[in-house]
Amino acid sequence: MKKSLSKAKVADTAKQYSLITVSTLLIIAGSHFFKFPNNFTFGGVTGLSVVVGKIGLMSPSTANFILNMILLVLGFLFLGKSFGVKTVYASILLSVGLSVMDKVWPLPQPLTDEPMLELIFAIALPGLGSAILFNIGASGGGTDIIAMILKKYTRINIGMALMISDFLITMTAIFIFDVKTLLFSLLGMLTKSLVIDNVIESINLCKYFNVVCANPEPICQFITQKLKRSATLLEAEGAFSHQKKYLILTVLRRPQAILLRQYVKEVEPTAFVMITSTSEIIGKGFHGE
Asked: In this predicted model, what pLDDT tens digit does every residue of 147-165 receive, in sequence order?
């Protein structure tokens, strides 16, 4: 029993770190290929790195590395053991990855002459990567570390503090770059949070079933044995017919929801089925467990 639990824990840890690696690589790709060459200043440490790089002190990737390492040290000093190992791993991988890309594939100018197209990728790739990280309880470090410190020692509204810091970093573009770059950066800052929120919601999206039927046994067996999920069974009564009915409540992932909908249609076509989309499910087997 202990061996099986240990194997399951190892498999889960391997899966989580694989997701962290993939998501961090997405952030690296979006930052190196699209954000840095176009001088887009939105987004925490990578945005600040663009500003530092333009001043000429060092390249954006080097600035990102130094800033992230400083923030990691601050994280260890102020947060101690509560400082997440997954965040440390992602932050180091991000910093090293950007430095390696700068050496292996330097980009002195944008890949294309379409800044709007490149802005889309500069938002979408890091946004997707950040959403995956947040969804498994990690982050890419940077200003998120400052947020953790503020949360522990102050009563400051973290979301507002991060929004203000991102806005101030973005606004530096007006002093260093042209108005066009500033407007692109502002658009990126406003859009990035929407992308992250929508991706997280899409990842966690489940289907909540209310099935009203006369013969619940086959449906319940299909849910528990075939789909490996649980359900709640309630007795009910039709308000018009006063006939005895049963109400089955269950929550399924999207592929499972398709199978259940088809099965109910086959075994009891007169059943009344209500399906609701939801991304906030807390309990065993779902996000937030």
From this structure: 777 777 777 666 667 777 7
